[in-house]
Amino acid sequence: MNQDPFESIGTGIPEEAVSALGVLPPPLAADILDLATRFDAIMHAGAVRIRLELVVTNSCRKIHSDYTDLRLITTYAGPGTQVLPMGAEKLESNLWSVPAGWVGLFKGRLFGEGHSACLHRSPPAADLRVRRLVLVIDTPSLANENSSV
């Protein structure tokens, strides 16, 4: 993973999905495996889709909800995903930043009837001149290749 930026994707049971990401520092691989295993246990999916990405652009800067059931997002380095509190007006000034290292479970549009999707966005990494190392874990059958963090 010498590329800057990069994106690695792995799908399968947690061990297979983490292995498909390539060679990672052992503590990072262990943390991703732990999160993937826990996510799989919550979702009862039998598999996960993992995306590890170094983000340096302003992609996904609009406040939105994802077209999925549940998504795990954690930022290992750089500014974390910005979340709009439930019921708040859709304004940048109302966004709250999830601290790096925290793990968020984001309800998507397909989570289920009676549940509101979590509105969020990626901080504008290019404007801020920062790099973000972001992990996203999804249910493979509902993962959207074009969804950003």
User: What is the helix fraction of residues, given as a range?
Assistant: 10-25%
Order of strands, main sheet, comes to 1-2-8-3-6
Count of individual beta strands: 8
Quaternary assembly: single chain
- On the 0 to 100 scale, the average pLDDT is 88
Count of alpha and pi helical runs: 3
**Parts with pLDDT < 50 across at least 5 consecutive residues:** none
Spatial separation of the terminal alpha carbons: 20 Å
Content of β-strand: 25-35%
| Main pleated sheet | 5 strands, antiparallel
Compressed to H and E, one letter per element, the order equals EHHEEEEEEHE
Task: Give structural notes.
The chain has 149 residues and is of the alpha+beta class. Helices cover 19% and strands 27% of the residues. A five-stranded antiparallel beta sheet has the order 1-2-8-3-6. It has a three-stranded antiparallel beta sheet with strand order 5-4-7, with no helix packed on it.
